[in-house]
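Figure 3 (text version): structure tokens given as input.
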């Protein structure tokens, strides 16, 4: 046996596990008597130190860290600086399923999809019923049966022409490139101007081959996330949600584009630095928009899953629009219990509400609650630390934040409660009711059939 071992990567774990198995001893006795244990077992000191370190680290990861993650999940506190940050893409060697460059939405479905008995739209609060539980299957069912909540469908283009204009500016079909807005692990966002209507659009640009190589879950690639985001945005239309205009997916090329309305303003916490945040009047206006958009999403059985300041964009006239549906999920039959991983479930609507509370705290105080130096530290603080608010804070506002950041998801304030809260209502009055497209159609059908409209309420 070597007296010192130098290994890298997975070999370190293999060596350490092998050493622990051969030692067949508890960690306590090993730590108590380094030298005699090494001599008796014939292991070098450096190897034994590493094996013990591995065992301690393994115990921490399995018992301590998993327990705090499970507790945060139970509490429904996994939105906004929670689990959305754990979904980090990893490269995989094969794209899987032989898709090549073609990204048909059918690729979101499992290999087989069993037929079910005539699922239907139940007509209550814009909820839809469908035969299966997976988000992608629910979304495909809605699309195939016309259960979408928008007046004008998203344009689908399957022919891509990449060229340049007379000034040498790059073009994607009729869109002329102006400048890059941002970039992420999946792709980039670029500002384009349409030569047809002269308007500016934010275009998300992806390489399909790249997305298919990024593993975000055991059975999902980044392509799954992008296509699910497209499906979700195709069925929605609301003044407080970023609108998807067009999808460009040419099966003969590696390029994939999402053409979105361009929000020319900023994100909600921009300018909310210490010590005073944004000010109550501005925050109230922003919060009313956020709540209105989320109530609409939840009424359509969609959990956003990543509500945070970066995904809340402010237009030039001060309207907040919710964007980025890449980790959003869909539920059915009113059951919003979602699974994060085997054995870890949470209620999606309560998690979104928690994230609204975190965002509100940030807008008011210019910092985040429970934020630790690491993600694990943040989990620990969420579970163990009390919520601290300034004594001089407006009592109504303090009551609202405490209700949103209640650690018991069953006692946490709902979005409907938030909409009626005295601080939110303020001098502006109740949130304006939005008559969505699918409810408008139901209203029209009810009037045509003479069945009455007493039970149809706006949202």
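Below: residues designed for each position.
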């Amino acid at each position: 046996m070597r007296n010192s071992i130098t290994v890298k990567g997975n070999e370190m774990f293999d060596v350490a596990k092998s050493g622990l198995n051969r030692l067949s001893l508890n960690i306590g006795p090993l730590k108590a008597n380094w030298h005699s244990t090494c001599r008796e077992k014939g292991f070098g000191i450096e190897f034994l130190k590493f094996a013990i370190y591995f065992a301690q680290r393994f115990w921490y990861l399995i018992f301590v860290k998993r327990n705090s993650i499970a507790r945060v999940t139970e509490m429904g506190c996994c939105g906004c600086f929670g689990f959305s940050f754990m979904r980090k893409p990893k490269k995989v060697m094969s794209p899987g399923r032989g898709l090549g460059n073609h990204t048909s939405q059918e690729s979101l479905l499992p290999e087989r999809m069993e037929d079910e008995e005539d699922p239907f739209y139940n007509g209550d609060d814009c909820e839809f019923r469908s035969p299966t539980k997976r988000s992608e299957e629910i979304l495909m069912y809605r699309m195939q049966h016309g259960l979408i909540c928008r007046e004008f469908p998203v344009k689908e283009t399957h022919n891509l022409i990449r060229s340049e204009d007379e000034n040498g500016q790059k073009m994607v079909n009729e869109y002329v490139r102006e400048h890059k807005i941002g970039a992420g692990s999946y792709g980039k966002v670029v500002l384009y101007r349409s030569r047809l209507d002269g308007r500016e659009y934010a275009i998300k640009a992806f390489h399909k081959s790249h997305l298919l190589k990024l593993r975000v879950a055991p059975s999902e690639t980044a392509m799954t996330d992008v296509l699910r985001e497209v499906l979700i945005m195709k069925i929605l239309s609301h003044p407080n949600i970023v609108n998807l205009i067009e999808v460009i997916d040419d099966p003969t090329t590696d390029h994939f584009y999402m053409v979105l309305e361009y929000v020319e303003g900023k994100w909600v916490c921009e300018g909310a630095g210490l010590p005073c945040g944004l000010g109550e009047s501005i925050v109230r206006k922003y919060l009313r928009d956020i709540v209105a958009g989320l109530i609409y999403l939840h009424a359509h059985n969609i959990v956003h899953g990543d509500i945070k300041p970066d995904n809340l964009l402010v237009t030039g006239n001060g309207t907040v629009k919710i964007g980025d549906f890449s980790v959003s999920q869909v539920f059915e039959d009113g059951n919003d219990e979602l699974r994060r991983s085997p054995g870890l479930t949470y209620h999606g609507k309560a998690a979104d509400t928690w994230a609204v509370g975190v965002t509100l705290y940030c807008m008011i105080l210019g910092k985040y609650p429970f934020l630790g130096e690491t993600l694990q530290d943040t989990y620990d603080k969420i579970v163990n630390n009390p919520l601290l608010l300034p004594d001089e804070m407006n009592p109504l506002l303090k009551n609202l934040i405490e209700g949103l950041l209640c650690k018991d998801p069953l006692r946490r304030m709902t979005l409907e409660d938030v909409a009626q809260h005295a601080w939110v209502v303020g001098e502006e009055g109740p949130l304006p009711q939005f008559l969505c497209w699918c409810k408008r159609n139901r209203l029209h059908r009810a009037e045509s059939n003479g069945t009455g409209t007493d039970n149809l309420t706006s949202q």
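Residues 266-425 form a domain with the Transferase(Phosphotransferase); domain 1 fold (CATH 1.10.510.10).
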